């Protein structure tokens, strides 16, 4: 199975044409990075960076998910050489089982920063995982000059509020973005700066309009837009947080909407079953997005 370059270029152009985004992230969870080799990840970033540059000056950010420092340094350098203007650092996944010390995290970030001169995004994992960062640690990361953005997916509202407060107290210049695809409005109203979600690959327009309504303080309009999003969210994410299967359901929704022609996920992720496909089609058609070339609320 190979990267579908024409489809990837089409999607990148669609995102730029939506005029609803401030940047494009490659190799996130929705991008199935765990099934991609280092070379493939760099190829994805190169293709997207080339296509985005044809139409805009929007930055392309590449996520880095590695188990060790040497690999992370190599992946970061490859992302830079492929055209990324920033990198998003995910926790090494062995931390999910064994946990980590503050020094592990700080040393990991500092070691990557030694080999590339790019802005860093911090991907904050759910509070229930052993790879979650404490508010104290987030404050320390916020004081690193190369750290510019926090993609916060705490998924515990009490901890989420404490995390935001800790980052703001450490450095008010840092950008804080929600990555809670499954409950956008509730997390947008916490005094943050926007969203960085895989769901934005599918409906960038409505998500941006939701964010604009939140910024204006127009709760009635924000609730209306969230209500439009909810059936789509339920079809893709259900009532829980994103899973690998949710990413394949998102791909199917994008196929129904005409954004991609082939929704086949990279194994071992499985495609949606027929019941899930029917629910996805009903939601996409109900939103008026089936085979759409542009997205409107």
Describe the 3D structure.
By secondary structure, this protein is an alpha/beta fold. It has a domain at 204-297. Helices cover 49% and strands 9% of the residues. It has helices spanning 5-17, 38-55, 69-81, 94-98, 102-113, 135-142, 157-170, 184-188, 204-216, 219-237, 244-256, 274-286, and strands at residues 24-26, 60-64, 86-89, 119-124, 147-152, 175-178. Strands 1-2-3-4-5-6 form a six-stranded parallel beta sheet. α7 links the parallel β5 and β6. α10 runs antiparallel to α12. The protein is globular and about 50 Å long.
Looking at this protein, list some descriptive labels:
6 strands; 297 residues; alpha/beta
Short structural description:
With 297 residues, this protein is α/β, with parallel strands linked by helices.
Give the beta-strand count: 6
Q: Mean pLDDT, as a whole number?
A: 95
State which percent range the strand residues make up: 5-15%
In spatial order, strands of the major sheet run: 1-2-3-4-5-6
Give the radius of gyration.
Answer: 18 Å
Q: H/E order of the elements?
A: HEHEHEHHEHEHEHHHHH
Largest sheet properties? 6 strands, parallel
| N-C termini distance | 35 Å
Helix content: 40-55%
Q: Unreliable stretches, pLDDT < 50, 5 or more residues?
A: 292-297
Secondary-structure-derived class = alpha/beta
Count every helix, treating DSSP H or I runs of 4 or more residues as helices: 12
Outline:
globular
């Amino acid at each position: 199975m190979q990267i579908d370059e024409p489809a990837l270029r089409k999607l990148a152009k669609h995102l730029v044409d939506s005029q609803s985004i401030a940047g494009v992230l490659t190799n996130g969870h929705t991008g199935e990075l765990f099934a991609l080799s280092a070379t493939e990840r760099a190829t994805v970033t190169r293709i997207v960076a080339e296509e985005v540059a044809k139409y805009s000056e929007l930055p392309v950010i590449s996520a880095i998910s590695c188990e060790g420092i040497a690999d992370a340094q190599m992946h970061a350098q490859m992302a830079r050489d492929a055209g990324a203007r920033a990198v998003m650092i995910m926790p090494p996944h062995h931390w999910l089982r064994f946990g980590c010390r503050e020094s592990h995290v700080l040393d990991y970030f500092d070691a990557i920063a030694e080999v590339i001169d790019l802005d860093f995004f911090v991907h904050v994992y759910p509070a229930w995982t052993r790879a979650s960062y404490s508010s104290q640690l987030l404050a320390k990361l916020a004081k690193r000059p190369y750290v510019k953005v926090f993609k916060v997916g705490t998924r515990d509202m009490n901890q989420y509020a404490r995390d935001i407060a800790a980052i703001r107290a450490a450095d008010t210049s840092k950008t804080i973005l929600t990555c809670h695809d499954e409950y956008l409005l509730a997390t947008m109203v916490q005094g943050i700066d926007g969203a960085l979600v895989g769901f934005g690959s599918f409906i960038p327009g409505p998500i941006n309009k939701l964010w604009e309504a939140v910024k204006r303080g127009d709760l009635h309009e924000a609730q209306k837009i969230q209500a439009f999003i909810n059936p789509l969210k339920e079809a893709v994410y259900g009532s829980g947080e994103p899973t690998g299967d949710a990413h394949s359901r998102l791909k199917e929704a994008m196929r129904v909407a005409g954004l991609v022609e082939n929704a086949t996920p990279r194994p071992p992720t499985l495609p949606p079953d027929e019941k899930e496909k029917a629910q996805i089609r009903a939601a996409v058609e109900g939103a008026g997005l089936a085979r759409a070339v542009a997205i409107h609320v």
